[in-house]
Amino acid sequence: MDQKEISLRGAGAILTIDLAAIVANWQTLQAVSGTECGAVVKADAYGLGLHPVVKALYEAGCRTFFVAHAFEGAEVRALAPEAIIYVLNGVRPAQEYTFAAHNLRPVLNSVPEVEDWGQYCATSHKRAPDGSLLKAGLRIDTGVNQLGLKLYDLERVDHLSPLFDVTLLLSQLVTADDSIADRQIEAFDKIRARYPGVPASLANSAAIFLDNNPPLYDLVRPGYALYGGNPVPGRPNPMRPVVRLDAHIIQVRVLEPGHSVGVERLWKARGPRRVIMVAAGLADGIPSGLTDNEKHVGGKALIQGTLCPYVSDIAMDYSVIDVSDATYLERGEMVELLGKTVTIDDFAAMANVSGYEILSNLGRRCHRRYQPL
Amino acid sequence: MDQKEISLRGAGAILTIDLAAIVANWQTLQAVSGTECGAVVKADAYGLGLHPVVKALYEAGCRTFFVAHAFEGAEVRALAPEAIIYVLNGVRPAQEYTFAAHNLRPVLNSVPEVEDWGQYCATSHKRAPDGSLLKAGLRIDTGVNQLGLKLYDLERVDHLSPLFDVTLLLSQLVTADDSIADRQIEAFDKIRARYPGVPASLANSAAIFLDNNPPLYDLVRPGYALYGGNPVPGRPNPMRPVVRLDAHIIQVRVLEPGHSVGVERLWKARGPRRVIMVAAGLADGIPSGLTDNEKHVGGKALIQGTLCPYVSDIAMDYSVIDVSDATYLERGEMVELLGKTVTIDDFAAMANVSGYEILSNLGRRCHRRYQPL
């Protein structure tokens, strides 16, 4: 038993991350979209580990990365020297230097932001490593939400155009409603006409799989789908599963009718039951919504081929699962809480939260194990 | 502006942790209980940082720490060489060596666990650093939940008593119902009689503040209350607030009636509104339940003295707050999302989750800033 094995035995829960599946998903998204495929790796690559994920994708050929913050961009830069890196939350006052130092491109979201960036580019005389102007993307408001630049905003900042290169026009297509999407595409095309030759990106993962083939332009930027999330809810998931969560069994208990477990005592056994206490709780990213309560049906884990319900409240360090219908289990064994059958999307639906929230919170205390490429 | 200041400017959200308040809370709990006060520091000290928290408490005189996992215990051991460290999730097969190596005491929860620990102590000939027997706590089932040892369980493992020292009897008092508490105390005392001279711990933080003064025995073991959580829900919080969460404003937007923000577009402005987009979202531990929806009123942030509602969905990297009733705000400024007015407990109630869940998920991406002692 090597050090790594000992450390995994010490872990309460183990999050296994299939790097080959992330790469395969990226390749699928690129093939299906028929255009350049970037990768959204913000928030520590959705909680799965920025370093291994960026390394794997960069080696596979990914050359455009999206993060939320400049400090995340600086980490990507260290791993992907030749990549283009966009910072989706944009640039705040006094942050500009970080962008120049690490060759990051802010996604500019508002008129004051464009003005500040233009001012910085004009006064600092900073240049990209190849001597060209500093670069930025523009988030376009295509009429759906109000968090980007409109046509008249762009007209107001036109005089700043010579100060930096606009290298990407971004917006996000609403995939749930065709009539909205058509208006968005029309608005986007109107603005694209003002920036001839500038690459454009409108599609998230869902748009790539739409039957009506909306224009994907020059770049798609999947996030959740890369990590195995279903980009087309309600239809079979075209992505390969990426994560599996296993937890150690701390105890096996036989309960008599009326017995409760946990401090809150909201759940009581209706008949003789066998439950296990597994070493993964709120602090490991298991959401409180996973348990049965008066408003909500609760979640299930796949234990030896049988779906078994979570009972009692999710505690900070453990969860309790009713395994009466499963085969015999012993303390010290591991059980799968999340994987190919109970997927991230299932887990999120059972807990009544989004899959983004599930991924973001998993793996803070869970040990992460990477399946190599 | 030093490196640290630059790094904080780079952060989207900053979690400020008042170490002096944690120490003051520990001292209050010790004074009010009139007995030894330990500290629960599992899950990276409830997400606030194991290293600084344990260092501060150890320097203040805390000598008994509780964690959930052996690997957390090993980290505490490195910081607190003379401390007693209990591992609440107990010991699993093949984990025993870690306990002996770092002088950790498992809290034994079941008969098989007691048997395995006894067997290990008998066959390994491992000893505590002072040459005495290895040690363990016993979790007692006092009739409330079924996750500890009952009297007849203890009788079954009596022959193992010479193999290790039992140094703590633990259970948890139900504070919401006096009749249950009385039965628990009776059951606990019956078991204590079997272990003369062995310290006992029955009280969580709430019990310390109960008017009917339940017996606190030899050790109290607060967790959430140390970190500023209210141990007596519905009554004024006797603890000092510990955490504050501030986030940078990414954008300020004026919306016309009918405008929406965010991708989901579930929220629409009913009149002319001014909103801010702040750089803290799901991936920073802002729970999705904080926003208004059909089932739930949603949360508010204290912006310049005015409580302002979260609107639209919480996105992965940002939240949107309606600041129409606040004074003028600018992009780049910081706003307080959590602190003395909107406390952890308020935040949890607004999001319909527990305070434990809030603390556990904050600070994964937020930068942590410590107010020194």
UniProtKB/TrEMBL annotation, chains A, B:
Q: Does the keyword Glycoprotein apply?
A: no
**Residue ranges annotated for the Alanine racemase C-terminal domain, each copy included:** 242-371
EC number annotated for this UniProt entry: 5.1.1.1
Q: Does the keyword Isomerase apply?
A: yes
What InterPro entries does the record tag this protein with? Ala_racemase (IPR000821), Ala_racemase/Decarboxylase_C (IPR009006), Ala_racemase_C (IPR011079), Ala_racemase_N (IPR001608), Ala_racemase_pyridoxalP-BS (IPR020622), PLP-binding_barrel (IPR029066)
The cofactor named in the record is:
pyridoxal 5'-phosphate
EC main group: isomerase
Which SMART domains did the record assign?
Answer: Ala_racemase_C
Which SUPFAM superfamilies does the UniProt entry name for this protein? Alanine racemase C-terminal domain-like, PLP-binding barrel
An example of a Pfam family matching this protein is: Ala_racemase_N
Query: In the record, which positions carry N6-(pyridoxal phosphate)lysine?
Result: 42
Q: To which pathway does this protein belong?
A: Amino-acid biosynthesis; D-alanine biosynthesis; D-alanine from L-alanine: step 1/1
List the CDD domains: PLPDE_III_AR
Q: Name one GO cellular component term.
A: cytosol
Amino acids binding substrate: 316
- Molecular function terms from GO: alanine racemase activity; pyridoxal phosphate binding
Q: Which domain of life is it from?
A: Bacteria
Q: Which UniProt keywords apply?
A: Isomerase, Pyridoxal phosphate
Swiss-Prot/TrEMBL GO biological process terms? D-alanine biosynthetic process
Task: Kindly identify the residues recorded as the active site.
Answer: 42
Which PANTHER family does this one have? Answer: ALANINE RACEMASE, ALANINE RACEMASE, CATABOLIC-RELATED
**NCBIfam families found in the cross-reference section:** alr
Function text: Catalyzes the interconversion of L-alanine and D-alanine. May also act on other amino acids.
Family per record: Belongs to the alanine racemase family.
Query: Know the name of this protein?
Result: Alanine racemase
